[in-house]
Write a structure and sequence with these properties.
Elements: H1 3-21, H2 24-50, E1 72-82, E2 87-100, E3 106-117, E4 120-121, H3 126-130, E5 132-135, H4 156-173, E6 184-187, E7 193-194, E8 201-206, E9 209-218, E10 223-231, E11 256-261, E12 267-274, E13 276-283, E14 289-305, E15 317-329
Helix pairs in contact: 1-2, 2-4
């Protein structure tokens, strides 16, 4: 196991209790970040190694973040979650400024200043107001899951959703082949990511690959559109404890599974297909994220079972979970990338 994998798995273990207490809508994005953390660094290195173009002749990638110390950052992020039984919404705001960390790397220190869930305003606790989410797209910067135990549960969704957008932007910026509109890179991963807490959620896994496309570059507005599709791998390495779970729920192989133990000793077992479609609008001059959207559907086949082996089960029920997230940055004065 490499060092990045060790740290990611250690962080996941530490946060499993938190994720288990939050809504399923929060865990998917948290797990997605771990996939990003584990995959993009070594795959980027492999991509560079595979190219034999001399450095002087290599085309410059279109996407790169150029920070300015003291630069102000502010986002509004909103989510509509269409679950099986109900639809819930949130809207949150984060504000911050760019500083340098002790290693001299530019970091955006973001504070969450406002949160609304459904139609109600959430009063942020003192700990939530004091919380800072450090994010960076600078070369050499490492994205990391902050200490979510210090914030209110309702704030975990916005924090991890924003982290997902940054992780996708970082993957895109690390693909040096994204030079012209239409260029794309496929990042294979396929390994399972778990959100099981071992008590209530006895099995919870998904597996994702990434297809990154530089969709367009607008010379007039100097804005690039990047699409990051999170797809089921050809051979997902998730654990399917019962034979009936192998039947594809949709057009691809099942890449999502969850088995929940109820208080009466019965089980609710679901299997399905999970995908993410993320679109990022990025300023070419600065590399700032201007806006982003995410569509995260999960097509599920679920059965109620009376045994741990999931062989004595009722009739299957099919449904879809759909999360729609929108991120918008505050407008800023025009900036020119440093030369």
């Amino acid at each position: 196991m490499n060092l990045a994998a060790f740290h990611a798995k250690s962080a996941l273990a530490a946060l499993s209790a938190v994720a288990g207490r939050t809504m399923r809508v929060c865990t998917a994005t948290l797990l997605l970040f771990f996939v990003c953390l584990l995959s993009h660094e070594h795959l980027f290195a492999q991509a560079l190694k595979a190219k034999s173009v001399p450095p002087s002749a290599a085309p410059q990638p279109a996407l790169a973040r150029h920070y300015q110390e003291g630069e102000k950052i502010a986002y509004t992020i909103s989510c509509i979650n269409h679950a099986r039984a109900q639809t819930t919404e949130y809207e949150a705001r984060a504000e911050g400024v760019v500083n340098k960390d002790p290693a001299g790397i530019f970091v955006e220190d973001l504070a969450w200043t406002d949160l609304q869930v459904n139609d109600g305003q959430v009063r942020l606790s003192q700990a939530s107001r004091a919380f800072r989410e450090p994010l960076s797209l600078a070369p050499g910067a490492k994205l990391a899951v902050p200490d979510l135990g210090r914030v209110q549960a309702a704030l975990i969704g916005p924090i991890t959703d924003l982290l997902t957008f940054y992780a996708d932007a970082k993957i895109a910026m690390n693909q040096k082949g994204l030079v012209r509109a239409g260029d794309h890179a496929y990042v294979s991963f396929g390994a399972p990511n778990s959100w099981a807490d071992g008590t209530r959620v006895v099995i919870g896994e998904d597996a994702i690959d990434f297809n990154v496309t530089l969709q367009s570059i607008d010379p007039a507005t100097q804005v690039a559109i990047v699409v990051v599709r999170h797809l089921p791998p050809q051979h997902p390495q998730i654990k399917l404890p019962a034979r009936w779970m192998s039947t594809p729920v949709s057009e691809s192989q099942n890449n999502w599974v969850q088995v929940e133990k109820k208080s009466d000793g019965t089980y609710v077992a679901g299997v399905g297909q999970e995908t993410f479609d993320v679109e990022l609008k990025i300023a070419l001059a600065t590399g700032r994220i201007l806006s982003a959207t995410m569509d995260n559907p999960v097509d599920v086949m679920e059965r109620a079972c009376t045994d741990a082996a999931l062989t004595a089960c009722g009739s299957p029920e099919r449904y879809r979970i759909l999360r729609e997230i929108t991120l918008t940055a505050d407008p800023t004065p025009a900036q020119v990338a440093p030369r």
